[in-house]
């Protein structure tokens, strides 16, 4: 029989399940980010798997591997002095005539809808080391970001 008509199993036609990708670079965290990561690991470890479907157990284990790795590699950053934009600062800026405030945090803590952006995001990278009053080029169409205020975040 031709190999084209032979099927070993249904398993070979399933989508492969990959690990959750680890963001490149250091795993910097704020005190809040470290607490949230610990809580995530504890919550995943507390899930009872006895009545779960096999695929759900695999997904849980994959999530747990990711969060345990993130906890093991977390690098708690000190609270900055906020003289310049850096990791762990809250920054108020003007862009395109609008004023916004963002907090620069770690990759896993980032939530743009809540005003928390990753230190590796393009906007954060553009603002790093800037001081109040500086105008920075941002974007390909000549946009500029003006830094209006900088303050440290001290939430745990």
From TrEMBL:
Coiled coil: none
Pfam families: GreA_GreB
PROSITE patterns named in the record: GREAB_2
GO biological process: DNA-templated transcription elongation; regulation of DNA-templated transcription elongation
Record-annotated Transcription elongation factor GreA/GreB C-terminal domain positions: 83-151
GO molecular function term, any single one: RNA polymerase binding
Protein name (database record): Transcription elongation GreA/GreB family factor
Organism for this UniProt entry: Sphingobium vermicomposti
